[in-house]
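Recap quiz, item 2
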Amino acid sequence: MGDEMRIVGGRVFDPANDVDGVVRDVCVRDGRIVADVAPGARTINAAGMVVMPGGVDMHAHIAGPKVNAARKLTADEHRGDVLPRTPMTWSGVGGTVPSTWATGYRYALLGYTTVVDAATPPLAARHTLAELRDTPLIDAAFLVLMGNNLPLYELIRTDRARVRDAVAWWLQATGGFGVKLVNPGGVEMWKHGNRNITALDEEVAGLGVTPRSVIETLAGAVDALALPHPVHVHCNNLGVAGNWRTTMDTLEALDGRRAHLAHLQFHTYGGTPGERPRSRAPELCEHLNAHPEHSADVGQVMFGPATTMTADAPVSAVLREITHGRWINADVEAETGCGIVPFAYREKNYVHALQWAIGLELFLLTKDPWRLVLSTDHPNGGSFLSYPRLIRLLMDRDFRNEQIKLVNRQAIRRTVLLDDLEREYTLNEIAIVTRAAPARLLGLRDKGHLGVGADADVTIYSECSDREEMFATPRYVLKAGEVVVEAGELRGGHMGRLLRVEPDFDPDVVRSLEPMFERHYSVELANYPVSEPWLLEPSHTVPVGSDGGPAQ
Amino acid sequence: MLSSEPDTARLGTCAGCACACDDIEIRTSESAAPRWARTCALGDAWFAERLAPQGPVASIGGREVELEQAVSAATAILGEARLPLVFGLGHVSCEAQRCAVKIADAAGALIDPGSSPASTLAFMDHGSSTATLGDIRDRAKVVVVWRADPVATHPRLLARLGLDRAGRIGTGAEAPRRLIVVDTRRTATAEEADAFIAVPDHLNFEALWTLRALARGAALTGAVAAEVPLAQLRELLAELQRCANAAFLHAPTGAPDRLDADALALSALVRDLCRATHVVALSLRGRANAAGAEDAVAAHGGYPTPVSFALGHPTASLGEHHAARVLSDGGVDAALVVAGEELAHLPPDAIARLQTLPAIVLDGRNTTSAPWPGAVRFGTASTGIQHPGVIHRLDGVPVPLRALAVAVRPSDAEVLGAVLAGLRPAAADAGDTRDG
């Protein structure tokens, strides 16, 4: 890590610093980007290659009890996809839910250096942290589920001013990075008796809160704490025809506060509940274009195998009735639920083709790639290994049009994809949606760019007209200034760091939480916060800002 | 040696069973032996057996040696074996388990997390519906204990779930919760329950299948309908379908080497019931960190079954690679017994075979005897006594264990870490860590 290095003569794409395909050197020292290095420094000859910051995946499911349960369930995938032990690496298995070591290796081999786990129940933070410790090479963070949290519901009802301190306490107690809401109110209704919530103003039975009050209060708390990342919302009514209205209502409920919408594609359906869904991508794009305080990740569906895994357990019950296959339900007291259903998206299926097309519509209609980030909600919409193919779909209009011909025609006719959507993403735009934008939206000032002082996470690609091939096999990947991947092979490297936030809170809030813990939990409050150093370190605490906004 | 502060009270966690009760009050002082409160008899025994480990920290064939020498010997055993077996994980911390899995990978070993093959098969075929203890306590109106006896095996569980007699009484507005036991005979748990349904061993599958049939409105015909306690089963089903939220508590099913269908039948029943009622099932695992063991092997190896690293990558097989079976069959040529406690669970022929193999045993109990001549033995100090750590409770919730006394012996994780370092130096690994 103390090595100096000069990456020579590559075509650099660093959108955060307005560098768009300029041939220039990138210099590294002590794990950071620097302006210059000594003449004798090690060099990488990147002539004819494309140089970008390391990839940042801001919404994926990679560690913790839900992911591990899904690993156990997908044995059939693992048999066909093994990673052999080498002198440099532990062995593992792949498929849509790879083993821990395999997850880190494969993200690194793909040129990704930072990954955020989208949903961890705080009660199980120790489990997520332990798995992240065995997920090598990437810096990682996790979002803490708070949208179906019973003590928080009590505070929202009786002492709303305390919610801010409670949220801060929860983030400190878990090592988490941000606040995640999943089907607020709906998961609680599911655990109680297989029910759900379908409207923002529907009361969560007997608890005196509604999705609206939960969203408003927690978004407000996140802003009051000036967390680097806005409240991250998986809206009510995921997957339901007509749910675009719920999405719009949710955005409206935010009343000007910043927010990030998870896997927007799954929340962009027109039509009537119970009937065939349609696309409302143009409307959602129009909203996003007009509201700079809102952002989203796409949640693109890719044909082939997937494993749906979500805190939105009622959705999993619906999928179970479609697949009639394996299903996991796991209720987590006081906090959330979990549903897992192995799945496959098929080109000829109307709904799957529509989902695929809506994702592409979102990508192609948006005017601001800084606020609509690439994701498949791995592995819900498909594995992260499908990102290169998705990139090709975005960059190569001919390829995209060929693929459009192969899918369900009725579904395509419900979208605007056939309306001469000629747009092709440039390398600069790909660099935005896979690096610069997610880093900025996460408030990670040292990631996603190659300016002086940034972490030296760098991915170097060989130029190739087949963009899928190009992005699938980076020529070099640097993590914290060290070459971890070269010519498709792992070269060593260190454990990544946990990225976390530690906002201050009034310690009095613990007194408010004590009776609530007694009522709702089955562990002692004193044992709840993570204190084990081997789980929390090495870590980097991202400072909370004073301006309530993302970095830069 | 214990804390030198006068009569200090602190919160501890008991690892006597998989309940992982974390409200144990421990009092230590210079002058008196440590006292603890809120434990059950299993917990009392667990603490008592581990507070004062005796005998050498390291020995080979009963002869005390330096720790480093024993570590080298252990490393040599694992490195030279063609197919070593790693087992006993359910008794040690998550940190030690992760290390044990890495040892298995490095040594090309077979590792058995200790789960029941029948339960694993049911999981792999169907999945599962489950809940953590707090949600069962607060939501399940009807709880069925199916061929398990938590009063005996997990003494504090019913009370913690609000299912003891006092806990079941309603608050006036609500109807009381119901506890129903289904078993071959009246167990201690049955004595505590509201109702008991007797189902003999040989009709267990039939009883579960009958419930499925009733739930799905299928016709019952012939001999089976006459043999099972049909009226009681109908009544049970009606109760389950009337309530909004119900739970099954069951023992991990089947003998270690049998793939019987009962677990599949229970899992299928729960799933069928889930269409109408919110139903969860909880396996009452015995070993304190059984859930953690399954989690550790699955996280690194990718499977819920025993995993073999013999081919240089994880492979899994159900039913063939359980510790008792491979020891009896003679398939392995060395063993790492991660916890001496596990030996009590092996059948005699497996023990006999084990005693002929090069073996390494870790034991944190007060026992002074080496298991057999030739074994490399480490007298560790248990997590939760001299070392902090984490275990996964029977419902999967991670619970911290606290160090209650000054550490004078290494932990299981430290010993396993040293053995691992001998097998595979960390410096070579991409992103490896030796922490914890």
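DSSP finds 17 helices and 20 strands in chain B.
Chain B touches chain A through 68 residues (CB under 8 Å).
End of item.
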